[in-house]
Amino acid sequence: MQGSHIGFDSLSKEMNDLTQHRYFGKAPRNTILGTHSMGIGYVILMIILLLWLEFFEVIPSLFRDSMQLFTTNFLVFLYIMINVTGNYYYLVTTDTSYKKVETCNEERDGYFYCQSCEQNSPPRSHHCSFCDRCIVRRDHHCIFTASCLGHANYRFFIVFNLFVFVGSAYVVIINLYYLHINIGPLIPLSFEAICKVIPLLTVFKLWTGSVMLYYFLVVCVTWLCLIQAFGCFGCFVFQMTLIFSGQTTYEWRHNIFIYDEGWKKNFQDICGPLWYLWWLFPFFQLQKLASNEEDYYTQYTSKSSKYV
């Protein structure tokens, strides 16, 4: 009986440790990535497809007779893809969580004790159920990055959306011109012309051998980029509106305006004074934001913000 009792206590302790590991801010990052494999996989697949199709098929096919136009379009698209890939890399790899373990007290105004993380969390933080940790100035959790958008990586999200919109719009225009030249005239617009760019009909033509694999992939990528262009443009406009008003998505939904310090100060709080360098090229990391945690949090300690 005593051995059985000891075995039960040991099992209970293991279950308790497992529960804490899952729900109390200790989930490993590879577990988080696994639950969002489809979102990250889509982004990586689209980057690979775009680099392959545009660099090796579409641009060379359209501008084979003009080296100047070929070079210009090649460099423009290369610049766009460098910014998309670079900002996505920083967006995914930048840690936005708060990991300063303290005792359970809320002496500093605006701080709250997070039961899940078992620590004091600073103002404007939220606990994310996906990441299992408190995120500094959390806006929302993104399935395409398998991480939360917070103060440290928010600027990368903004610029990423901007360049995805620009790149997607560019791809839609240049791919439609490619299809117009290689599959058949799309102008004047007619029912027959529309049928040439419908993915399901293109699958049938691919199966019968009337079109090549390149054409089918170009049609699919063009439609995906059209959706991306509208989605990323809307997201960019909405997020820029939040930045200028000094809000997160949570604060916008609950009409919280206490952190608004003017559009210029709000913008620099996220993007920094050298924002134009990051917007031109993602690897110009001359000044990282929130390098000193205390300096960042003190600007909010005089305002009440105890929410999770």
Q: What this model shows, in words?
A:
The protein has 308 residues and is mainly alpha-helical. It has a domain at 41-99 and 158-291. The protein contains twelve helices and six strands. The protein has helices spanning 2-23, 29-35, 37-62, 67-93, 154-182, 191-195, 199-208, 213-245, 249-253, 263-271, 275-280, 293-297; strands at residues 112-114, 119-121, 126-128, 133-135, 140-142, 147-149. Strand 5 (140-142) and strand 6 form a beta hairpin. The protein starts with a helix and ends in an 11-residue tail after the last helix. The model is unreliable at 1-8, 10-26, 101-106, 290-294 and 304-308 (pLDDT under 50).
What is the topological layout?
Elements: H1 2-23, H2 29-35, H3 37-62, H4 67-93, E1 112-114, E2 119-121, E3 126-128, E4 133-135, E5 140-142, E6 147-149, H5 154-182, H6 191-195, H7 199-208, H8 213-245, H9 249-253, H10 263-271, H11 275-280, H12 293-297
Antiparallel strand pairs: 1-2, 3-4, 5-6
Helix pairs in contact: 3-4, 3-5, 3-8, 4-5, 5-8, 7-8
Helix/strand structural class = mainly alpha
Number of strands: 6
Major sheet attributes: 2 strands, antiparallel
N→C terminal distance: 45 Å
What is the radius of gyration?
25 Å
* Helix residue percentage: 55-70%
Relative strand content: 5-15%
Provide a count of the helices: 12
Largest beta sheet: what is the strand line-up?
Answer: 1-2
> Spans with pLDDT under 50 lasting ≥5 residues?
1-8, 10-26, 101-106, 290-294, 304-308
Q: Mean pLDDT score, rounded?
A: 78
**Coarse shape:** elongated
Give the oligomeric state: single chain
* Order of helix and strand elements from N to C terminus: HHHHEEEEEEHHHHHHHH
